[in-house]
Amino acid sequence: MLMSQGKPAKLHYMANGFRVLVPGDHVVCAKSGERIALEDLRYWSVARQEAYATPQIATEAERSA
Q: What is the number of structural domains in the chain?
């Protein structure tokens, strides 16, 4: 996965998707700091409005919340 060095997006995370508030090409994982291309974004928390790079990171974030 080759990542461009473009602008980060600002998103509103919802139960079945997200809405782009500020256009960009990626978001940053709340726990690892890894860049996540919007087309690769699959894991987030609606309650915390955070994105996660992997299902393992998302699970750990949920457990520690």
A: 1
Question: Which residue in the block uniquely carries the two structure tokens 């690769």?
Answer: 40
* pLDDT tens, position by position, 42-51: 999 999 999 9
User: How many angstroms separate the Cα of 13 from the Cα of each of 2, 6, 21, 57?
Assistant: 24, 21, 10, 17
- Domain range for 36 is 10-64
DSSP string, 6-62: -PBPEEEEETTEEEEEE--SEEE-TTT--EEEGGG--EEETTTTEEESSHHHHHHHH
pLDDT for the residue numbered 7: 95
**pTM assigned to the model:** 0.87
Q: Kindly state whether residue 4 falls inside one of the protein's structural domains.
A: no
Whether 1 is covered by a domain: the verdict is no
